[in-house]
Amino acid sequence: MSHDGHHSVVIPAPGPEFVPHTVAHHFDTPVQEFQAAKLGFWLFLATEILLFGGLFAAYFYYHETYAETFRVGGQQLDWQLGAVNTTVLLLSSWTMAMGVRSAQTSQKGKTLLFLGLTVLGALIFLGIKYVEYSAKNQHGLIVFSHLFDGYDQANKQLPWFQDYGGVMKDVPHGHLFFAIYLTMTAIHGLHVVIGAGLIIWVMKGAAKGRFHAGYFLPVDLVGLYWHLVDLIWIFLFPLLYLVP
Amino acid sequence: MTTNIPAIDQHAAPTGGSTNYLNNTSGFWSWASTLDHKRIGLMYLVGTTLAFLAGGLFALLVRVHLWEPDGMLFDNPTYNQVFTLHGAFMVFLFVIPAIPGSLGNMVLPLMLGAKDVALPRLNLLSFYLWLTGAVLATLAIILGGFDTGWTFYAPYSLYTQKAVVTIGLAVFVLGFSSIFTGLNFIVTVHKLRAPGLTWFRMPLFVWALYATSILQVLATPVLGITVLLVAFERLYQVGIFDPRLGGDPVLFEHFFWFYSHPAVYIMVLPAFGIISELVSVHSRKPLFGYKLIAFSSLAIAVISFLVWGHHMFTSGQSTFAMFAFSFLTFFVAIPTAIKEFSWVATIWKGSIALNAPMLYTLAFLIIFAIGGLTGVILGSLSVNIHMHDTYFVVAHFHYVMMGSIALAFFAGLHHWWPKMFGVMYDETIAKIACGIIFVGFNATFLPQFIMGSRGMPRRYATYVPDFQVFHQASTVGAVILGVGIALMVYCFVVSLFQGKKAMVNQWGGVTLDWLTPTPPPLENFHEAPVVTTEVYDYSTLDLSTTRTPIA
Amino acid sequence: MTAHAHSDHHSHGALQMGHHHVSSSQQFLSVLVALLVLTGITVGASRIDFGSANMLIAMAIACIKASLVIAFFMHVKWDTAINKIVFLSSFLFLALLFLFTLVDLTTRRWDSYVNTIRTPVDHGWVQPAPKPDAHH
């Protein structure tokens, strides 16, 4: 693409196990490239905050309207599993931060190790989430097999909300808590899956030696994404499992 | 603004200098996979223009239907679909993406002295997301259409047996197209300005696009989650918008207007930017109140987040919230009026060239004054209760969206057309088209103010015979407007094949976009520009060097 | 407290992505411990009934945890001013969404005053319109 004879800027590799990085042709310096990508990614994270923000606004709106429904609904969730998952995500956020640090200090082996541990954390999180969803399914609070059956107009009930134990029978619109729980955790879970995918993608680059003290941008950005996933969970955990 | 590239850079171009962004490579794939902001801008131009023509066709169908009080063309449910298609196509596929996507993409990096936008791949992704949204919207028509109005108000949007999920998905995808364009422009403005191009040397079109981008990034995600939630409501009855399940439809309106009020400024701020450029260039005067206009764009961006409830005065909001929203709404008038007065003051005692872009600009100034002032009327709580959901509202926002934004878009197209293609359209035909559009537009929408103030509700397929004279006047106006737009499009298309060569610097502009070769080469500048003087300083340009046809 | 990892190859600094702050492992570990302790405090605080203050306490702790993640793990403390402004402004605008929707929701109860509004007739300023059946 450098038709005009400008040769591209190349960041040299710090050692034989690494490869150099060529700066995109429309940037003058590596600093400009790094800062542009980073600013762009922060803007993207801001959109993520506002996207989740809509869900949080809905949570607060109905927490204010149906406080009792939310209190009783929160008691149906397993706070111990929630706390374990919180710990798992916090640990994975730490391994991610260490992974970025390892890339920044050109430690290829450690980079791969910490990124791998982060993916492991994502998998454990999703596994525990599956156990939790199964329990909800079992108690009829979210019957996944009937999730898309539509509203039963004749009997004025939701097929996916059976509440076999009758735990929500004394509070108004008991399904509302579980609908919000499902929507928030499912969208968050989707972000966990995407995040894990992105980490595996940068691990491939790291294995080829692309990331080192001179160039670690993709690891840095994927790290920010992963921390955002953690950040959202930090708010979801007390709001859903320990309903105040 | 002088730079180290002389204004006659055209002749300094290397031999074989006729190579430009249009002809440096050819073939379908060279366009479909291009990362060049100028080519992406052109693809947006074609796409959004087609969407505009489709939306315009739906509008004409609506107007013809309303010729008779009982309606001429459709049964009531079909009418609902047609006006919904008009609104959704115009808003999501044309008005929001058109100016940033086409002219913004084309001009912003040029104005900054950059080789491209900061994130070219993301820019191409934005375009393909737009295309995906357009395909999904068309698919939704095939899958049974949608009849909710472009606003998708709950609970009707939750119950109607139409393709709401598909169009919701289209809006979600289009939203991310818009977000990525805005994100890209913010990064480009921050990181890729030419040396010497300080913030207060940036052309005002750049300032306007910057303010727009802030809104796109901060407001659009909430629309995204809102249409997702509507889709989820339809798929598994979340219940938060559904009164049968304990939900509150007013929450939907809060979410929707948290985006859609700022969206009004996502639409109009780029138009303001174009007008700011054009009044200066075609009056050959530096802009009056440059900094005020720049800051007023940012002020509008921020205030627009505080006023969304004025769309909901009859929705069941609390009286206190209505009072607060109405009060805050009036603050929008201040930065907006600053702009209008500054433009008029710029023209005053200027050396005015009454060419096609300037005629569109003058038309904008008149129409926007009406559109803006009727907005103040509608922002008053008590008057709004009376006018709510009448044709007065329809006329108001068409004076802004069609009369101001689309006309500013046309003005910008006439202004940058010679830059983009290196050819000039027939100015006489362009001016006649502008006159027809101005007359047709006012004939369409002035009667709507009158019948609206007399109680004609919007979105009705039929009406009482007392309103027929106004409806017929409006329909005649719409046909005139359609003829004017057809003539304008004809004028542009003919110029591509038969137009004479454009001048080196067609209008004698002094911003960086006019100081590159015409049409620009692949990476915009043969030599990286350095800015040494203030913006809109026309004393630095010898006009005699600009009026030679391009090589 | 912090290690400047590439101090040993400053020579080609201009060819790198710029001068980056690299946090020390100890700092990351301290942040992790603080986050885990705060999680414990959140759970503990939720067991005690503070009334409506429970929400405030839970959110305050979550905000502290979030600040730690943002400042240290996400490295915002050492990031450029514009990146800080961008990310933090998203929370500001989110606060606007919360503020106005909740103001609407919570002030609707004030609207009972509508039932007690005195009309011009109540004030005796105008005569009540004659009932339709008064003509019979």
Describe what this molecule looks like in 3D.
The complex is a heterotrimer of chains A (244), B (551) and C (136). Chain A has helices spanning 30-65, 67-76, 79-104, 108-138, 175-207, 217-241, and strands spanning 10-11, 21-22. Chain A is mostly helical and 244 residues long. Chain A has a two-stranded antiparallel ribbon with strand order 1-2. Residues 1-5 of chain A have low confidence and may be disordered. With 551 residues, chain B is an all-alpha fold. Chain B has one domain: Up-down Bundle (Cytochrome C Oxidase, Chain A). Chain B contains 17 helices and two strands. In chain B, helix 3 runs antiparallel to helix 17, helix 4 (76-112) runs antiparallel to helix 5 (120-142) and helix 13 runs antiparallel to helix 15 (391-421). Chain B is globular and about 70 Å long. Residues 1-16 of chain B have low confidence and may be disordered. Chain C has one domain (2-121). Chain C has a two-stranded antiparallel ribbon with strand order 1-2. The longest helix of chain C has 27 residues, at 81-107. The chains are: A mainly alpha (244), B mainly alpha (551), C mainly alpha (136). At the A-C interface, strand 1, helix 1, helix 3 and helix 6 of A face strand 2, helix 1, helix 2 and helix 3 of C.
Short description:
The complex is a heterotrimer of chains A (244), B (551) and C (136). Chain A has helices spanning 30-65, 67-76, 79-104, 108-138, 175-207, 217-241; strands at 10-11, 21-22. Chain A has 244 residues and is mainly α.
Nearest-integer average pLDDT of chain C: 82
Mean pLDDT of chain A: 94
Report how far apart the termini of chain C are.
Answer: 96 Å
**CATH first level of chain A:** Mainly Alpha
Given helix and strand content, the structural type of chain C is mainly alpha
- Provide the spatial order of strands within the biggest beta sheet of chain C: 1-2
Chain pair forming the biggest interface: A-C, 61 and 55 residues
Poorly predicted parts of chain A: 1-5
Number of domains of chain C: 1
Number of domains of chain A: 1
Number of H/I helices of chain C? 4
Task: Tell me the distance between the termini of chain A.
Answer: 58 Å
Across the major sheet of chain A, the strand order is: 1-2
Number of strands of chain A: 2
Main beta sheet of chain A, described?
2 strands, antiparallel
- Radius of gyration of chain C over all CA atoms, rounded: 30 Å
